[in-house]
Give the backbone structure.
Amino acid sequence: MTYTTLAIEDFGAVRRISHNRPEARNAESKELLDELHRAFTEAADDDNVRVIILGGKGDHFSAGHDLKQAQRERGNFTVEERWDFEVKRYLEYSLHILHTPKPVIAQVQGACIAAGFMVANMCDIIIASEDAFFSDPVAHSLGAAAVEVLVHPWVLGQRKAREMLFTGGKFTAAEAKDIGMVNHVVPRADLEDRTMEMAQKIALASPFALRLLKRSLNRTLDMQGFGTAIAAHFDTHQLSHVATAFQSISDGGLENAILKEKKASGV
Ligand code: ZN
C-alpha cells in the first residue's frame, strides 16, 4: 500500500505515521484523512506493530483541515452531503484513532490547530517540542462552533477550554503541559528521539495487556459521558454550518478566513 500524503516508517515494534504535506503546513485534505484512516487500520492489524506514533514532517504537526480544498470541492454541499462527509471523515475517523487497540503517541511541533488539535488529542500521550502551539480559532475565523470533535474540555478542563474557544487564542507547549494536556515538552532537536524512547519503552509491555488497559481507560471516559458529549456536539456543530455567520464567511471565500486564521495563529 502506498501513501501520497503520509510518511510511514517502522522502527522495530514502533510505527511512525506522519502527516507529509509540509508545504501546506500538513493541512488535512480529504485524501490525507482517508490515508490516515487506512494507516491506522493497517497498524492495528499488523502484529509486528505494538506502538504507533502520529507526527508531522516539517515545521508543523498540522494547521487543520484543508480549507482551500473544502472551498473548492465542498463549497456547495447540501446539509445532508456535509453531514455525511463530516460524520465519516471528521467524527468517525477521529474516534477510530482513540479506539485503536494499541498505544498512540502524538509527536507535536509547531502549529497544532483546529482539526490538528482534534486529531492530536485522540492520541493516548502527547509529547510536544518547545515551539509547539495549540488553538481552535474557528468560532472567530469561520463562525463555526469549534471543530467537530469537542475534546477540548476533556483535555484542558472547563476554564481553559472556554478561554481557548471563546477567544480563539493560542497557547504554548509549556502552558499545555501545566494544564496536563501534554505529557512532556522537549527541545525541538530532541522531539523525535524522546518520543521514540517512550514508544520503545511502552512496546516492551504485553500487547494484550495494553489493549485491555486502553479499553478500560476509554470506558472510564465513556462512563463520564465522553461518547454522548462528543456525539451531541457533532450534531450541534452541524447546525453552526448553516447559521448566518458561517454562511456569510463561506460566501466571502474561505481564503479570507484562512488569512485571518494565519494571522491569529502567527504562522
Ligand atoms: Zn464542520
